[in-house]
Amino acid sequence: MATQRILDFIATRRPTGPCLVVDLDIVEDNFRAFRRALPDSAIFYAVKANPAPEILRLLASLGSSFDCASVAEIEMALDAGATPDRISYGNTIKKERDIAAAHAHGVSLFAVDCVEEVEKVSRAAPGARVFCRVLTSGEGAEWPLSRKFGCVPAMAIDVLTHAATLGLVPTGVSFHVGSQQCDTGAWDGALADAAHVFGELAERGIQLTLVNMGGGFPTRYLKDVPSAQAYGRSIFDALRRHFGNKLPETIIEPGRGMVGDAGVIKAEVVLVSRKSASDENRWVYLDIGKFGGLAETMDEAIRYPIRTARDADRMEPCVLAGPTCDSADVLYEKTPYPLPISLTVGDEVLIEGTGAYTTTYSAVAFNGFEPLRSYVI
């Protein structure tokens, strides 16, 4: 949230236009919390959450590994100081030439979820290690992931068997329980599926060694969320329940949980208006919206904490919208957002919990509004 370091930076630098400010001390605190919570699991930071070089360098220096979705992200992790053995190419949808490029960089761990992807890896990265992603329901997540990634456990067994026949090393299973997953028990069913795949492949003479338990660890927005320690206890209990004393090597891929609460967006009120004399709700327009980095307000899935200097005044619900000439650029309308009745043009607002998935969603200057500027302190 808005640490004193962030507040001091905004007060002294007075950056114009919307910007994200990230406090590296919070990122380091979060990394150490994950390490304490799951000391036997390797941490592979999900680079897509926030690929700022300062964040990647810090995490690399702390011993983090990296989950990468593209060759560009792999190169970012290498530039930050990670060695290839600390990088996973975790995207299940890869061009064959990108697999070859990653392999040329020394990366040897690849995600797959179908026979066709296995065949690409076998041609472009012979002898590589592969893990197969299995589908999960995503129930309990505020930003559930779709059926775009993964396959059913029965197919995962065939996919990994096929990988072995092509000279690849079937290494394990991965899953993702959904982003901003607030149910600490959500990993139980997925670990049961993973254990089933392990057992079936052992009967075929293939010994898997790795379970990639994905991300999903939440950051605090308007509601409290369980601690990293609570997730760690629940996940370890599920591992023991389904794997007994033969615990596999495990990976976690925190992204939002690593950087979300480390960042704050400074924005400005551009306009306050009503649509009619009888309109119950004011419309408050900010200089940032869905296309400026707040894409996760889609369907109002993520509701960010918003602070102003007028929060002691009377609050009334309003419709909150962005500045672009696109009717989809409305942040909160279905459930109006309470903001001070005295809020007016030119007022500064702080949008907290915005360290993850904001700069990366704001990569294009839609309507000519520049991509979200970022400061890492």
UniProtKB/TrEMBL annotation:
Modification type N6-(pyridoxal phosphate)lysine: residues: K48
Keywords on record: Lyase, Pyridoxal phosphate
Orn/DAP/Arg decarboxylase 2 N-terminal domain segment(s): 27-259
A single cellular component GO annotation: cytoplasm
GO biological process: putrescine biosynthetic process from arginine, via ornithine
Catalysed reactions, as listed in the record: L-ornithine + H(+) = putrescine + CO2
Family the entry assigns: Belongs to the Orn/Lys/Arg decarboxylase class-II family.
PANTHER family linked to this entry: ARGININE/DIAMINOPIMELATE/ORNITHINE DECARBOXYLASE, ORNITHINE DECARBOXYLASE 1-RELATED
Name the record gives this protein: ornithine decarboxylase
Lineage, top ranks: Bacteria, Pseudomonadati, Pseudomonadota, Alphaproteobacteria, Hyphomicrobiales
